[in-house]
Amino acid sequence: TFQRWPEMVDNCIPYIGGEEEKSEQEPLKLWGRVENGRIVKAEGPAITAQCFRVACQDGHMAAVFMKFMDGCKPSMEQIKADWAAFRGPAQEL
Q: What pLDDT was estimated at residue 2?
């Protein structure tokens, strides 16, 4: 795919228009609910994103940092277990 986008080879693009906003808002849609046929976004957590395009052959990369409220600091094992056990409407279908 880099043949169609040669300026991306061995390069990093420090700003992608609209990508930061999308990365901040899309999870809130996923964590929200459907009400009267419309998606109502979750009210939190607050998400701040910085997006950089870096050439990679397959997929996407992300560096994610989280701060939990009220002194809650789950272990990585607990987070993975919660993700594995999650069953939302999409999984039920």
A: 61
